[in-house]
From TrEMBL:
<feature type="transmembrane region" description="Helical">
    <location>
        <begin position="317"/>
        <end position="337"/>
    </location>
</feature>
<dbReference type="InterPro" id="IPR057699">
    <property type="entry name" value="DUF7939"/>
</dbReference>
<keyword id="KW-1133">Transmembrane helix</keyword>
<protein>
    <recommendedName>
        <fullName>DUF7939 domain-containing protein</fullName>
    </recommendedName>
</protein>
<feature type="domain" description="DUF7939">
    <location>
        <begin position="360"/>
        <end position="440"/>
    </location>
</feature>
<keyword id="KW-0812">Transmembrane</keyword>
<dbReference type="Pfam" id="PF25607">
    <property type="entry name" value="DUF7939"/>
</dbReference>
<keyword id="KW-0472">Membrane</keyword>
<dbReference type="InterPro" id="IPR025738">
    <property type="entry name" value="BatD"/>
</dbReference>
Length: 461
């Protein structure tokens, strides 16, 4: 980032036997232009000046261009203060705007910031660098920057009184819904059915949605399955979805009520605890069609039972036989259902969320970097990369450096040069690498890396 305004020269860089050319740039005073009159200006804003730990903060940058540009690129803001997770939300938007009678092409980029600890976050200036085309001439490179922003991050408040063990879930909105694998009109004893409970949270990551507390129900066997997690980009930020599946089997014919499900969450718009609920649900489990259950009436008088002792013995005999057959049939159904399930269907319910596993790996990597343990740094960062990119896992530190932005990308390249190849000398700066690991910005895909730095040229009408 430029330290002063005026005409500056970026010196040449030596790489092996090659030498780059010097580059002349002009740094304009910050916020010295009036929107609607300047040819180019840049603005930035956040949706919350105060927030909470792990709550989403949307940082929006807008670049207004009233003239055509060449070799344009955006330099991302640097964050300092509390540890954060930062992600670019979707693709950049381009649209037309008119201010004070002047036409502008506007490029808008939105970042989602998730602070991991309380304190203050200092968001540095976003910088737009480009050559300006005006009156048929192309100027030298010029820099335009936005105002820096400071956000206060509050600690996690106490849980609600009614739910002292509530998990922390800050969000804009939370909705619970349920679906069933088939019609519930004729649900027989011993027949399995699957209950799907869907939790949608606006302004949060899917890995942050806690496991629901499902109360046991008498004579109902419940088998939880692996949840499905999904994050989508919507106008309000990240829309997270968690879909839990529960296989359920009614052991006996009866009317049962599944208890109400509650999910406490913190409303970041109103700064209060709220409770999203799924109402209680009644199920009618009928006797199985294969075996006719024998039910004794509760209204039989004792005198009637003793009239013919032989008949009582006969009825008890068949009752026991029927119960044995029912148990055998239920065991057969359970074994059949168990054999049709995929083999790997048991998962530890209390496994730490992915973001906590990643934070632990990064802490160990920073410690290893400070201690100069290159082998541990490599192992820890590659394990972190496997959690971050499940589908396209980076297999080397060089591939990992291409998936993140500077300064971490630059430090990983230096780490590779110092520890690999014929010119390796194990002389790398662990302190600098540890510092770079505290602020990580992730690139979305390899394709996006080549497209993000190129903005469409504009010639306003």
């Amino acid at each position: 980032m430029a330290k002063r305004t005026g005409f500056l020269t970026i010196p040449s860089v030596m790489v092996g036997g090659d030498k780059s050319n010097e580059v002349d740039i002009q740094v304009l005073p910050q916020s010295s232009v009036i929107p609607g009159e300047a040819d180019i200006f840049i603005s930035s804003e956040v949706d919350f000046q105060q927030s909470f730990v792990q709550a989403q903060i949307l940082y929006k940058v807008k670049i207004f261009r009233g003239v055509a540009t060449r070799q344009a690129r955006i330099i991302e803001p640097k964050l300092s203060g509390a540890d954060v997770l930062k992600e670019i939300l979707g693709e950049d938007r381009n649209y037309e705007s008119k201010m004070n009678g002047k036409n502008y092409n506007v490029l808008e980029r939105v970042y989602a910031i998730f602070p991991q600890q309380s304190g203050q976050i200092h968001i540095g200036s976003s910088i737009f660098e480009a050559r300006i085309v005006k009156n048929g001439r192309i100027t030298g490179k010029k820099l335009f920057q936005s105002e820096p922003i400071t956000v206060k991050v509050n600690p996690i408040p106490p849980p609600p009184v009614a739910f002292p063990n509530a998990k922390w879930l800050p969000a804009k909105s939370v909705n619970l819904n349920q679906e069933w694998s088939r019609n519930l009109d004729k649900l027989s004893a011993g027949e399995p059915i699957t209950r799907h409970i869907i939790v949608k949270v606006l302004g949060q990551l899917s890995t942050q949605i806690p496991l629901l507390d499902i109360e046991p129900v008498k004579n109902i066997k419940i088998y939880p399955d692996k949840p499905e997690l999904l994050d989508a980009i919507v106008p309000g930020g990240v829309l997270a979805t968690r879909k839990d599946q529960y296989a359920m089997i009614g052991v006996v014919a009866q009317d049962v009520v599944l208890p109400e499900i509650h999910l406490p969450w913190w409303d970041i718009n109103e700064n209060i605890w709220k409770i999203s609920s799924l109402p209680a649900f009644a199920l009618k489990i009928i006797p199985s069609n294969d075996i006719e259950l024998i039910q004794l009436s509760e209204n039989i008088e004792p005198a009637e039972i003793l009239v013919n002792p032989a008949e009582v013995i006969y009825s008890d005999y068949w009752k026991y036989i029927s119960q044995i057959f029912i148990v055998i049939w239920i065991l057969t159904v359970l074994l059949w259902w168990q054999s049709t399930r995929p083999k790997k269907k048991t998962y530890p319910i209390k496994e730490p969320p992915i973001y906590k596993q990643q934070a632990k790996l990064l802490r160990k990597a920073r410690k290893a970097a400070i201690e100069g343990d290159a082998k541990s740094v490599k192992l820890l960062l590659l394990n972190w990369g496997r959690l971050q990119w499940r589908e396209n896992t980076p297999n080397s530190m060089r591939e990992l450096s291409e998936l993140v932005t500077d300064p971490l990308s630059l430090e990983l390249d230096r780490f590779c040069e110092a520890t690999y190849g014929p010119n390796s000398n194990d002389s790398w700066d662990g302190q600098v690498l540890a510092k770079a690991l505290r602020k990580i910005t992730i690139k979305k895909t390899f394709k996006d890396l080549s497209e993000k730095d190129i903005l469409p040229p504009l010639m306003p009408s």
